């Protein structure tokens, strides 16, 4: 007969409970899983849950976990937002630093870019740089030629200022910059002057040096009839400067070196009578035909903006000059184009250049003026061409406006009663309200009676008569002295 299992007695149950309690304490203190003895697994004894969760329903526990998860997620969102804000602030500061002007160290205003080095600056800073004699890029000092507005940089600046308006330049700074550079106009950086030749300390300053045509077998295929002796080789026959200019020679009106007056390369300006060698500096040491000559320092509209003489032509009326520059930009006109139209207008007049010569417009640097001011003029130098341009610029603008298609936003201004003699033209408000550039039209006077006195030689008497006249001044002929 098989052995029957021994029933559990009371003392054994107590021992079992004590064993379970000790196991629970050990598990709770060591936080490690201890495999239960076979007897415990067989009996199905389980560790009691913590007192913290006693009496709580499953849905309550689930809700607590969801709340904890929500709090953790909310904390993560706040941290991410703070990080994004810090990143945006850092981006604004970095962009502001990268977009600083290399001249004024402020955020660039109306940016322009120098070619070919691609450095950018405020438009007003570049204008001042050129006015002060700058001939290269202010940043890298490399040779540069063109300065043009940068639309991509302007878009970046506008975007930056929308995000950080505090970075904008002050209103006074913007106003001062607008007075110097209006924006949207390309400029040209003048080329640096050619370096002067190395001085020859062996040459005596007391004697004249031979001109390029005095040397035998020179590359110009023409030799001076009276060459100047070289003081280094023939001091006995050298020409002393105290004796004046050597025969057959003169000084070039541009480079000021001695030149042969009769050489094929020599030319003479027929307005100021100045001679040019045609050798030292190409395109400058020459008097060219009237329509082929270039202006001195006025190649594009940017040069007109920087030229103070242009504003003086309009009596300091900057508003009218701005209107003219806007028209030139819209029509693509250059100063040389205006100069040619002025020359054609002068040539169409009966006296041509005589009024200009009578005003002593070309006296500076003149060697000898022609005895007849109305003589034909076909050659002109760069400086005289510039004088003609400035002399006729205002009247050209009047004629251009009379064509009708140049009237834009300034078409409806009233004419100022004082016209070009107005002393308030420099007042921006007054200049914008009134037009000062126009040709005065005399009022229509009624038909006047012209009194005439005709002497009668046979009778020795005078016959007084009258006739209709359209003389706007209403002049009455004066009686002869005998009648008076």
TrEMBL record:
Keyword terms of this UniProt record: Cell cycle, Metal-binding, Nucleus, Transferase, Ubl conjugation pathway, Zinc, Zinc-finger
SUPFAM superfamilies in UniProt: RING/U-box (SSF57850)
Keyword Disulfide bond found: no
Biased composition (Polar residues): 1-33
GO cellular component labels: nucleus
BP-aspect Gene Ontology terms: protein ubiquitination; ubiquitin-dependent protein catabolic process
InterPro entries (alphabetical): CHFR_Znf-CRD, E3_ubiquitin-ligase_CHFR, Znf_RING, Znf_RING/FYVE/PHD, Znf_RING_CS
Single GO MF annotation: zinc ion binding
RING-type domain: residues covered: 101-141
Principal place of residence: nucleus
Database matches in Pfam families: zf-C3HC4_2, zf-CRD
Entry keyword annotation includes NAD: no
Location in or out of the cell: Nucleus, PML body
Region feature Disordered, mapped onto this chain: 1-34
Name of the protein this chain belongs to: RING-type domain-containing protein
Natural source organism: Marasmius oreades (fairy-ring Marasmius)
Organism lineage string: Eukaryota, Fungi, Dikarya, Basidiomycota, Agaricomycotina
